Amino acid sequence: MRLINVFVLISSIYSLSTGLQAQDKGYSLSYFAGKTPFNNNNVSFDVIKFGVEKELPYLISGINVSLGKYQGVFEFSDTNWVAVGPYWDFWQSGVGRFSFEFAPTYIDNDFIAGHFVAGRWHFTSTLEYTFTPQFSQPFQWGIRYQHTSNGGTGSPNPGIDGVGAFVELKW
Questions:
Q1: What is the pTM of this model?
Q2: How many independent structural domains does the chain possess?
Q3: What does the alpha-carbon distance between residue 113 and residue 58 come to, in Å, rounded to a whole number?
Q4: 3-state SS, residue 6
């Protein structure tokens, strides 16, 4: 059911934005599902990401807005978060590309994946590989590694890693 809701959201945003005549190079909407392996209690998390591809200075490829949720280890311990930041497509060849994103992140809880954290403001960095087979246009597929921490600005700072897969609609 959750996947159906995501695709309804994707198709709604796609149909609304196709009529816009902006100076942007393109738009993307992604759904990511992953796990937090290693010492992070292996909890699952979801991310919905909206991207605006732009021609910006300093090698910035565009801006992403991400909304995510870490499933809680304990009752009532789910953690929602929002991140906004630039991304760079630093390697592209044929049907694939690697991207890096760095974004300030606000979380709505005092712990993530069973770990207490210092403060609500964090940073999220991601590394993505996106693959676009010719038969799946306009959909793209990919894998993502994500790291969220407060950058050492306070203690405790467990640093939460996540890996998983995503599907992206690009127009």
A1: 0.78
A2: 1
A3: 35
A4: helix
The overall longest dimension of the chain from CA atoms, in Å, is 48
CA distances from 96 to 16, 38, 93 (A): 27, 28, 6
Buried b (16+ CB within 10 A) or exposed e, 135-162: eeeeebebebebebbbeeeeeebbbbbb
Side chain identity, residue 141: W
Token pair 């300093």 is found at 58
CB atoms within 10 A of CB 78: 15
- Percent pLDDT > 70 in the chain is 82
DSSP letter, residue 9: H
CA distance between the termini of the chain: 25
pLDDT digits (tens, 9 = 90+) for 126-140: 999 999 888 878 899
CATH number of the domain that 9 lies in? 2.40.160.20
Mean pLDDT of the 58-85 span: 87
Helices (H) and strands (E) in the chain, counts: 1, 10
By residue range, what is the domain housing residue 107? Answer: 2-170
Could you tell me the pLDDT band of residue 18, with boundaries at 50, 70 and 90?
A: very low
